[in-house]
Amino acid sequence: MTTASPGVRDFTSDQLARMAKLFAREGAAVSAVKPDGTERQRHQLTKTPHLEVWVVNWPPGASTGWHDHGAAAGAMVVVEGDLIERQWKGGSEQWRELRAEDETTITPQTAHEVTNVGDGFAVTVHAYSPGLTEMTPYAWENNAPVAIDAAS
């Protein structure tokens, strides 16, 4: 007989967004990363094989660059600040502005980029399932993201 561990193993986009919101409401979790410096700062809030939650502090102008999260789906909730997220879906670029309390989700293997476009620091909370085991960076070439390992 095989015994499975209890608990959720596969989170839906809605469940990931709810997890990110839950952690975003925790003042202690959000204050885990102090606004400082010129680079994004990340702090892992929790990790299991099936879920990871991070808080990220974004200085003005900070960007992730184009990337994907491999097999992981994700959700992000903006705690404060003004960001733009660009996603590559169906062969075209889609983008949206994100402000405090806005959320966005990302499906596995979807290339995207997030940038702080505000004058001050931004804070976001991210939830991923399964845990992040791979990320592919992309270069923007000929009006499309191209995986860097495929670009060479």
From TrEMBL:
Listed Pfam families: CDO_I (PF05995)
Signal peptide bounds: none
Domain of life: Bacteria
Binding site for Fe cation: 67, 69, 112
Keywords assigned: Iron, Metal-binding
Sequence similarity: Belongs to the cysteine dioxygenase family.
Protein name: Cysteine dioxygenase
Organism: Flexivirga endophytica
